[in-house]
Amino acid sequence: LSGLTLSMSCFQPSCFGYPLSIFFIVINEFCERFSYYGMRAVLVLYFKYFLQWDDNLSTAIYHTFVALCYLTPILGALIADSWLGKFKTIVSLSVVYTIGQAIMSVSSINDLTDHNRDGSPDNVSLHIALSMIGLILIALGTGGIKPCVSAFGGDQFEDDQEKQRTRFFSIFYLSINAGSLLSTIITPILRGQECGIHSKQRCYPLAFGVPAALMAIALVVFVIGSSMYKKVQPQGNVMIQVSKCIGFAIKNRFRHRSVEFPKREHWLDWASEKYDKRLIAQTKMVLKVLFLYIPLPMFWALFDQQGSRWTLQATTMDGNFVGYFLLPFFFFLISICFFRSVLCYTWHWPLRKITVGMFLASLAFVAAALVQVQIDKTMPNFPAAGQSQIKIINLSPDAATVDFEPQLKTVNVAAKEWTDYITFETSQLHSFNVIYGDKNRNKTINLPGGNRHTLEIKNISNIFAELISDNVTSKPEEGNNLIRFINNLPDTINVTMGDTHFGELTSLSVSNYETFPGGRTYNVEVIRNLVPCSFTSKALGFGSAYTIVINECSEQTSDVTYSEDIPPNTVHMAWQIPQYFILTCGEVVFSVTGLEFSYSQAPSNMKAVLQAGWLLTVAVGNIIVLIVAGASRLSEQWAEYVLFAALLLVVCIIFTVMAYFYTYIDPNEIEAQLDEEEKKQVKKDENLYDKPVEADSRM
């Protein structure tokens, strides 16, 4: 209580020298950043696995959304500075933001249109429409309040509280990082839960619902502090003034393009007929910095692919991080802090640091390409349209030989063993012949092509040979596994694995594939002649498919074999740590240094223009992703990573040349000169005004 006082000059409660209102603003920012980054962390997965879009469409819509989020801050700044003021703008757009998050949560409810209760939405178009409406409202909300909240926090301090204002911004940006970090960890965990009324699905409603709730809390907290805020009335937007000044200069220069009009030192000087010398000089300084912004969008084109391409890359990797996830994570944070302290505070050439940041981002994508090459090596080859693949499973304790005719291939299969998938040209494959000792069986086949098949054989009185269509033409997604059973017993059995019931399997019959999450074991219960037996499955990896052959199952013993149809993901997610580490190092020196450089090279009243320009580079960067990914038509993902790395490297070289010719300025010194010139001009005007008065007095 001793630290709580009431500042009578502005009627603002304060705590330990700080306005009490800033605590509401900091909490609001933490909740809002949690809401935004939490939703964004699972957005591309929602597109791919819930809306069933392919990788390219999911990536395109994701980057379109991010670009929109960084275009709307200009609109928010204009509304705040020219119409509603910062407080009303934040409240109004936060309401829009909260509604958007709520709509996103509703759009992800599977049971909303799953009328036949088969686990899939019956009206995907409705879910897509709701999602797009929600994302547009979120983009308007988050982008609109982005330039307002930090500035509104700064408004709460008096002119003599510069030290407290600086500390506030440190705490403010800490809340941003804390909110984004926690949300990107928590929301994927929430998504991993299973929920639903009629069928259990990935819990997107929870993953989107928690961010929606946090945004509602952010709005409520901000409104509660309303009576404590210092609310500065809108005073016009400097961006409008700068835009008008540039527009008039261009128009005036075009009007006076004839050679009879003398050239001026700078093209902006053509605005001097309408605008004062100070605004023109300040605009020149800003444009000089904005010119250096031209190559910067390419960095963001790479950086923001963490949430799209890199997230999708992770879904094809081994996600078993249990036990040693925290060690790389802490190493990651410590390394970032070290890198920032060594480079950012010991190297005093800002433009060189920005160049290093761009180079590191390019290097990160080379690392991502190398990881992708290793992932591609583990991917199974599936048959093309005119091909068929056949895998032979020998259920007998005797070796067998299978001839594929006419004279295509002869395969020997050991007792109770199996082969890998063998690829055939479908048009050439007419029949097969199974041989056990002196017995054989020939079957004519007519396959449709473009599919995998399993040839199940067993030596009984008459050779059993059954060709079954697998109906699997791609690797399981989201790290899931496909499991099916073959009953190699003489009796009919019922099989249940975990909570999934495979139904009744007659002797030598094969079940359909069912999906199971990876990274764990499952209890398998078999009922044979009303007698139950059970066993624990092997630990499933991520992205595999197995055929489990039940050779024996009784109360005393069980004998099962696992035939691997699709190998699990073997490239571990930990291999992504280097690319994330390098890219984050690049972002530290690029973003922090870029903003510091920009602010040091422009007058104080033009910082809003530079912030708008900086955010615009992020938006353009995401648009570049859409253009490059759409125009490249590369079939291999690693090649696309290399393309982006090469493009940024070229841009990095261009920026290095631009930086070499850049001349650093001191805006304070220039403004001091302008102040001095204005004082001299005022004196000159006063002298001119006083002379006639003196003449009259002598008369």
UniProtKB/TrEMBL annotation:
Please report which protein family the annotation says this sequence is part of: Belongs to the major facilitator superfamily. Proton-dependent oligopeptide transporter (POT/PTR) (TC 2.A.17) family.
- What transmembrane ranges does the database entry give? 6-27, 34-51, 57-80, 87-104, 124-145, 166-186, 206-229, 285-303, 323-343, 355-375, 608-629, 641-662
Family matches, as SUPFAM superfamilies: MFS general substrate transporter (SSF103473)
Q: Name one GO biological process term.
A: oligopeptide transport
Single GO cellular component term: apical plasma membrane
The protein's job, in short, is: Electrogenic proton-coupled amino-acid transporter that transports oligopeptides of 2 to 4 amino acids with a preference for dipeptides. Transports neutral and monovalently charged peptides with a proton to peptide stoichiometry of 1:1 or 2:1. Primarily responsible for the absorption of dietary di- and tripeptides from the small intestinal lumen. Mediates transepithelial transport of muramyl and N-formylated bacterial dipeptides contributing to recognition of pathogenic bacteria by the mucosal immune system.
* Molecular functions (GO terms): symporter activity
Positions of region (Disordered): 679-699
Q: Which InterPro entries match?
A: MFS_trans_sf, POT_fam, PTR2_symporter_CS
Q: What is the lineage of its organism?
A: Eukaryota, Metazoa, Chordata, Craniata, Vertebrata
Keywords from the UniProt entry:
Cell membrane, Glycoprotein, Membrane, Peptide transport, Protein transport, Symport, Transmembrane, Transmembrane helix, Transport
What is the predominant subcellular site recorded for this chain?
membrane
Which reaction is recorded as catalysed by this protein? Answer: N(alpha)-formyl-L-methionyl-L-leucyl-L-phenylalanine(out) + 2 H(+)(out) = N(alpha)-formyl-L-methionyl-L-leucyl-L-phenylalanine(in) + 2 H(+)(in); glycyl-L-leucine(out) + H(+)(out) = glycyl-L-leucine(in) + H(+)(in); glycylglycyl-L-proline(out) + H(+)(out) = glycylglycyl-L-proline(in) + H(+)(in); L-alanyl-L-proline(out) + H(+)(out) = L-alanyl-L-proline(in) + H(+)(in)
- Membrane topology reported for the UniProt record: Multi-pass membrane protein
Q: What's the name of the protein? A: Solute carrier family 15 member 1
